[in-house]
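$ run holo --ligand "adenosine-5'-diphosphate" --emit tokens
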Amino acid sequence: MSHSDITPTQATNLIHHEPIYLPTSIQPHGVLLGLSSQLEIGWLSNNTQDFLGKQPRELLNQPLSTLLNAEQVKAIEQFCQHQESSVYSFKLSIQTSKGEQYFDAIAHRTQSTVILELEPTDSINQISFLNFHALVQEAIAKMRTTSNLTDFLHLVVSEVQKVTKFDRVMVYQFDQMGAGSVVAEVKRSDLSPYLGLHYPATDIPQQARELYQRCLLRFIPDMNAQPVELLAVENPETHSTPVDLNLSVLRSTHPCCVEYHQNMGVTAILVIALIKEQKLWGLISCHHQAPKHIPYEVRKMCEFLGQIVSLELEHKVNQSELDYKIKLQSLQADFIESISKADNFREALIYPEPRLLDIVNAQGAAVCLDNDITLVGATPTIEEVRALIEWVDTQITDNLFSTDSLPKLYPEAVAFKDTASGLLVLRISKLRRYYILWFRPEVIQTVNWAGQPNEPIQVNPDGSFTLCPRVSFELWQETVRLTSFCWKSCEVESAIALRNAIVGIVLSKADELAKINQDLERSNRDLASFAFAASHDLKEPLRGIYNYSNVLLEDYAQLLDEDGMEYLNTVVSLSVRMETLINSLLRLSLLGQGQLNLQATDLNNLLCQVIDVVRASRTPAQLDIRIPRLMPTIQCEPVLVSEVFSNLIINAFKYNDKQDKWVEIGYLDIHQQPEKRLQQLQPQTSAPYVFYVQDNGIGIPEHHYQTIFRLFKRLHSQEKYGGGTGAGLAISKKIVERHGGLIWVESCVGIGSALYFTL
Ligand code: ADP
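-- output --
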């Protein structure tokens, strides 16, 4: 400001040196001077008398040289050439009416103004570099030795506490949303702990956070001290523009901030910003109950320490993230190995138990393989999971779905928010309805605050709350209601990797199976053609044996004695038996060859023909055969299915010693009778009908349920129950299997048997 451009009124004011108040104030522990580019004192704090022994009006509008010596003024002039927002500090002694006074002088520029702040100090001597170095070096050396982030932050608060001697030193960490938590703390033993405390983003407003990024340290030695106003000579220009004191060390405290800390019983604070990747990561916050002065140099040292911590932090955070990723990867590798080795895929996923949860850091999981759901850890109920899968199936893209606030998307989840506010879903196969679901509880369930959550909230007469840690915690809880901790990208990746591995393993297993099937098919074919060739070729010599034996019996009977005749008769009957055996073998080997000729077949007609043939071959022809309801029409090869029914019906009468023998033929309908028993009966098929042939015969002991289907296996001697080759059921089984069906038996010895089959 130069004299030439002031108005007459301003001139009058100048003459009278009548200062006006600027709409700002500072803390009272130092003096603030606002200097024009000519280094004239344009405005100042209304406490110059206390520190400099001069009234504001004696200094306003005066050149800086009224206070400082020529050398000091020159240094400030030089500083003015520096870029804006750089800071220059130096030791200063000023001759006052009270004698020589020492100050720490801190200068910085905002626009065209130089702000010079003077804080009184005991001596003109600076802390020696060596002292400073010794202090910091020790702290740094210790920090480097800790590898884990928690230990590191604990060390940081301890070191800062050592230097500052504050009652409580904490590290606050911000999350992505700006909310924060206390992650490290040292404190006077009689104070209640804040460790683990969470507070909402509003507790430290965005503006304050931005400021911390520009100005790394904030110091308030006494919250309760009366602020000191700034005075200026009236000038419409300076009057209207608020003074930018953002970078001032003496800047006064916002009333909200004062109230906030007063509620905690805190009088002095020192806050150091922790910056990671150019973003405010957290704060080192020091609280003291009584007023506490920290010399400027010590504060600078703390700021420097903060910068070192910031650098090291980046390294530590990255390291701990890396450690976590490595842990996930090793879990993954472990998983994949056991899945690839396991026969039972579900078991391999679930055991050993915590592994499935650890792979994405979840508290609960559900493995869903078709209708079979297995729960691990803390989860909703099976029914809730089943319904959830139905819903998720409509949400899933790329076989993946994740949310950290399920109840907001799926309102039914409010009921199980305690276990599943967060959900991560992998779809392994859509065709087979294979899913893995992971659950995380509502954040609140997982947070323990070391403080006393039961201490009552203070409600003021006007209904407002007094802000205090307890209230902050409650407010924060409101903001995180119905949400879980979010799924980190490395966790989601870990799930995807698991899916890829499972799919890969399943595919390669399928390949393996296909190969085994191919081999089997080939050897089956070989076997069948061998059996065919062998039985075919055997028949001819057998015929020879039979014929020559008969010739012997007829033409040479007189040459043989009784024993000889008997032996020869045995040869004949054995060769007859051998021929039936060979015929069965031939039949069986032929069954394995050629395509099935499927056609729509009315089983009622088919059964009529079968029964006619059976009746014709048996005495008495009066057989009690019951068919309780009409049989369906199905796709099958009628000749083969006739053979099955024929075998079963003949057995039903053959293995029956009752006076009144009967056979019942019918079917169970899966759609009409979805009863449990039926599902147990036909465990692995989805065929619509289960046919049965039931009798009141001798029954089959349970340990023979499988044996009877083996080729040439009989449960009785030749003489009993009319003999047989033991091939009937083996042939029936082959036919059923060629139709893609199953055959099995249920029986009660002495009461009867039921043979079931599907096609
Ligand atoms: P077989 O030609 O001897 O009848 P199958 O293969 O038809 O041969 O039957 C194998 C064995 O199973 C029979 O020898 C018999 O012991 C037993 N079996 C088959 N059907 C019945 C039934 N309905 N009741 C009791 N036992 C049966």
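-- notes --
Residues 647, 651-652, 655, 695, 697-698, 700, 708, 713-716, 724-730, 753 surround adenosine-5'-diphosphate (CB under 6 Å).
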